[in-house]
Specification:
179 residues, alpha/beta, Pyruvate-ferredoxin Oxidoreductase, domain 3, 6-stranded mixed sheet, 6 strands, globular
């Protein structure tokens, strides 16, 4: 991998920024050059939110992700808005619980995960973001298990250690899903 541009998009309150920060932190622990650029509306919770993450073997020239290699879409408006921007040959990981639309493009790979439903069924409501991050790790970005665990412990365990195990379980849901 030389460079991977990832756009995580949804609405405020879904954990869009946390998922992006988790992926950026993972890249840092791998020794990559990393950029994490959050963007959200003034409403924050309930408003639009997205973040661009760049993982690179070379210095990052610009943090802006205008043509992502991978889109992680957490809601229908984000899916509709950003799907056309994904580079040909790229991938879209999306929450099929909230995005019932059929994929439109033949030149990208799609990975559907009913993240909101699966998280709720596992008593992990609000952690669909980490289930989608797990699906991304399964399908698009192979990282060593020990680095994933260390990143999770640092990202989720420092601010909210009480949520570390829940985040670990949500990540495992996405990594195990074969749909």
């Amino acid at each position: 991998m030389n460079i991977m541009r990832i756009l995580v998009a949804g609405f405020g309150g879904q954990g869009v920024l946390f998922a992006g920060k988790f992926l950026a932190s993972l890249g840092l622990l791998e020794g990559r050059e990393v950029s994490w650029l959050p963007s959200y509306g003034p409403e924050m919770r309930g408003g639009t939110a997205n973040c661009g993450v760049i993982l690179s073997d070379l210095p990052v020239g610009s943090p802006i992700v205008s043509e992502p290699d991978v889109l992680i879409a957490m809601n229908l408006p984000s899916f509709q808005k950003y799907q056309p921007r994904v580079k040909s040959g790229g991938a879209i990981v999306y929450d099929s619980t909230l995005i019932p639309e059929a994929p439109e493009r033949a030149d990208v790979r799609y990975f559907a995960l009913p993240a909101t439903r699966l998280a709720a069924q596992a008593a992990l409501a609000g952690l669909a973001n980490m289930a989608l991050a797990g699906k991304f790790l399964r399908e698009c970005y192979a990282a060593p298990e020990e680095l994933i665990e260390r990143t999770l412990a640092e990202a989720a365990g420092q601010k909210r250690p009480d949520l570390l195990e829940a985040n670990r379980r949500a990540l495992a849901i996405g990594r195990a899903y074969e749909g």
